[in-house]
Amino acid sequence: MEPIPFDKRSGKIWFNGELINWPDAKIHVLNHGLHYASCVFEGERVYDEKIFKLKEHTERLFYSAFRLGFKIPYTQDLLNNACKDIVKIQKVKNGYVRPVAWRGSEMMAISAQKTKINVAIAAWDWGSYFDPNLKLKGIKLNISKWRRPAPNTIPWDTKASGLYMICTLSKHEAEKDGFTDSLMLDYQDNIAEATGANIFFKDSAGELHTPVPDSFLNGITRRCIIELAKSKNIKIVERKIKPEELPKFVGCFLTGTAAEVTPVSQIDKYKFAVCDVIKDLSKSYHILVRKKSLL
């Protein structure tokens, strides 16, 4: 069955403080967020009708807006409640929530000091980000030709729409060549992340290595996995990692709100095992999100 296009779905969307019918959530084609990427958003997982780490996601949304130079015209508590309300209204048991804030259409030029800041929240049922069968065997990544820009060129520590342009380019190129996703390097040719998830490597001694998040987002799930690993006495090494080190690692996995914990079986020509440590962390994460899917 073909998926329903997102503009053809039913139910309600929270839009600037009101609940409106899903198909009526429209904006003008000349809005600043579309033309100049003055837009920030979040992606939140719903487990058993509760949103995991909702407060942290909302705090990051407000921080992202601050970094882009605009103020969200609602309180964090109000948006937290709106997210929970829309999950109930849409009857989402296990799914996804997308809060988004953007500059409107009052001005159409680089300067946008007097644009209205719009906010919308939608929620829908959603299963695994990657094919569940692929997740069991591990997904395959190529290495993108695009680089994460230097931290003095973009607001790298935000979840802003403009940062994802090269992610879409990278993922499309990977899929064209038979890969599931793409590994992105940073501006110094160190390993950074996948197109929408952080990355970890396991070495032969059982230690986990992960890139220092100094030019890309330090994900909420990434931080959860680090805490889980430490609770299991697994050593975490945060450092600069070069692509030339890939042959030295025996395991690899991605982490993210959408990706959760996804094993990687191959990057370029290098192969990895879906080892017990990765399976155990994935299992522990799924237990965690259902125990703590609370504010």
Report on the structure:
With 295 residues, the protein is of the alpha+beta class. It folds into 2 domains: 6-125, D-amino Acid Aminotransferase, Chain A, domain 1; 132-291, D-amino Acid Aminotransferase, Chain A, domain 2 (Alpha-Beta Barrel), CATH 3.20.10.10. Helices cover 27% and strands 28% of the residues. It has helices at 32-36, 54-67, 76-89, 132-137, 165-176, 220-231, 276-291, and strands at 12-15, 18-21, 39-41, 44-47, 50-51, 95-103, 117-125, 139-148, 181-186, 191-194, 198-202, 208-211, 236-239, 251-256, 260-267, 270-271. Strands 8, 9, 10, 11, 12, 13, 14, 15 and 16 form a 9-stranded mixed β-sheet that branches. The longest helix has 16 residues, at 276-291. The protein is globular, with a radius of gyration of 19 Å.
Q: With helices defined by DSSP (H or I, 4 residues minimum), what is the helix count?
A: 7
Sequence of secondary-structure elements: EEHEEEHHEEHEHEEEEHEEEEH
The chain-level structural class is: alpha+beta
Proportion of residues in helical segments = 25-40%
CATH fourth-tier homologous superfamily of the largest domain:
D-amino Acid Aminotransferase, subunit A, domain 2
How would you summarize this macromolecular structure in one to three sentences?
This protein is α+β, with helices and mostly antiparallel strands and 295 residues long.
Distinctive features:
single chain; 295 residues; alpha+beta; D-amino Acid Aminotransferase, Chain A, domain 1; D-amino Acid Aminotransferase, Chain A, domain 2; 2 domains; nine-stranded mixed beta sheet; seven-stranded antiparallel beta sheet; 7 helices; 16 strands; 27% helix; 28% strand
